[in-house]
Design a protein that fits this description.
single chain, 410 residues, Alkaline Phosphatase, subunit A, 14 helices
């Protein structure tokens, strides 16, 4: 097939969609969820894609959290370029800790915006509204969240009466239905309007509560498979990936396995001389209690960093510790938005500030969380095979999914 027009954004060139392209980001999708659902016979569509399409594993962005990975997927680049390095950060210029969900923090254009400018019809539906403003920034198209579906307007979201797309009521934010609503509304839009590009981003409510193979998790993946099958049979080029995986972070007695950083660091530098930032922090703390496997530390005296690093490296449960510059180079992060020290915990450990800073009574089940290198491996699935001669990169990233869907499939 002769290549059609292309669009270049953030140094990457993409072919203009030849037909409808649907990309789904399954929040928190540890690869084992697909394995378990397929083994149980509950994910026949994904099993079909594995045999007749293209399926492998990829690396997500670290910190393996929602905002940095979704923005990498839609920009095609790392946080070092797009600037969204977590869900939450310390704005040194303003001297405040803030949510990183305001478009003013985004440093480059998304592929969605670039395609829409070239005439593509683009639709974005995300589960949580925290992502909606970032994903829709500058976009001429449809962009709304299932969380706030009842509040959409044509002026702000590119569509009105979104709740008429599906028969489901607007779901609670803490529910599996929040993800199903995204897929149901997306399929309805797909069938009604045939947009050129759709990006559908789900929530990890189920993955925070249920491990792979659990009957509830398998039922959830069976639901996903139903929609994947519908998009495939409807003629879409379908790409499926995830923003991060998920792991149990508990002790033998079921309590959270936490390393509290503030008392450790203050034992080295003195009280009040360190600020611990947990980039997993978002408005939905019932999921994780703001406990994740990645943290950054701002020091009153940056020269204290070597002593802090040495102390943390000697602490059980800590996997990796770096000074800010080295950590940012290692994980492709923007140095001005991280601290003087970057910390990553081991697979079964989370990082906290101090015991009094976290209300663990909000956690309804044994803690499952994410954020570290141990949650970096994610699925990378296309419903079509790669074109003859298409090369598979040696270091596949989740944010290569648009490149593969637009440029490399048959």
């Amino acid at each position: 097939m002769t290549p059609g027009p292309t669009v270049t954004v953030n140094g990457r060139t993409y072919r203009y969609p030849r037909g409808p392209v649907v990309i789904v980001c399954i929040d928190g999708s540890e690869p084992a969820y697909f394995d378990a659902a397929i083994a149980a016979g509950r994910s026949p569509a994904v099993a079909r894609f594995r045999s007749s399409g293209f399926a492998t594993l990829a690396r997500s962005v670290v910190p393996s959290f929602t905002n940095p990975n979704n923005l990498s997927i839609v920009t095609g680049v790392s946080p070092a370029v797009h600037g969204i390095a977590g869900n939450y950060f310390y704005d040194a210029g303003g001297g405040t800790e803030v949510m990183m969900n305001d478009p003013r923090f985004l440093r480059c254009e998304t592929l969605l915006v670039a395609l829409a400018r070239e005439g593509a019809r683009v639709a974005v539906i995300t589960a949580k509204d925290k992502l909606r403003r970032l994903l829709g920034h500058g976009l001429r198209g449809i962009c709304f969240s299932s969380e706030k579906a009842a509040e959409v307007t044509k002026e702000e979201h590119g569509i009105d009466r979104a709740t008429e797309l599906v028969a489901m009521p607007v779901p609670d934010v803490y529910s599996a239905e929040l993800s199903e609503y995204v897929l149901a509304a997306g399929l309805a839009l797909f069938e009604r309007e045939r947009p050129d590009v759709m990006y559908l981003s789900l929530t990890d409510y189920i993955q925070h509560k249920h491990p792979p193979g659990d009957p509830v998790a398998t039922a959830f993946y069976a639901m996903l498979d139903h929609y994947f099958d519908a998009f495939d049979r409807g003629g879409a080029i379908l790409g499926i990936t995830a923003d991060h995986g998920m792991n149990a972070k508990t002790r033998a007695d079921g309590t959270p396995n936490v390393v509290y950083l503030t008392p450790l660091v203050e034992s080295v530098v003195g009280p009040g001389r360190a600020r611990v930032i947990l980039p997993i922090t978002d408005p939905y703390v019932v999921h994780h209690g703001a406990l994740g496997s990645f943290a950054t530390i701002h020091l009153a005296r940056p020269d204290d960093a070597p002593r802090v690093i040495a102390a943390l490296r000697a602490t059980p449960g800590i996997a990796e510790v770096y000074d800010g510059a080295t950590g940012c180079a290692r994980f492709e992060l923007p140095p001005d938005r991280l601290g003087d020290v970057i910390v990553v915990s081991e697979r079964d450990v989370v990082l906290g500030k101090s015991p009094e800073a976290h209300d663990l009574s909000l956690l309804r089940e044994p803690l499952r969380s994410h954020g570290g290198v141990s949650e970096q491996t994610v699925p990378f699935v296309l419903n079509r095979p790669l074109a003859s001669g298409a090369r598979v990169g040696a270091d596949l990233r989740n944010f290569d999914i648009f490149d593969y869907a637009l440029n490399r499939v048959q």
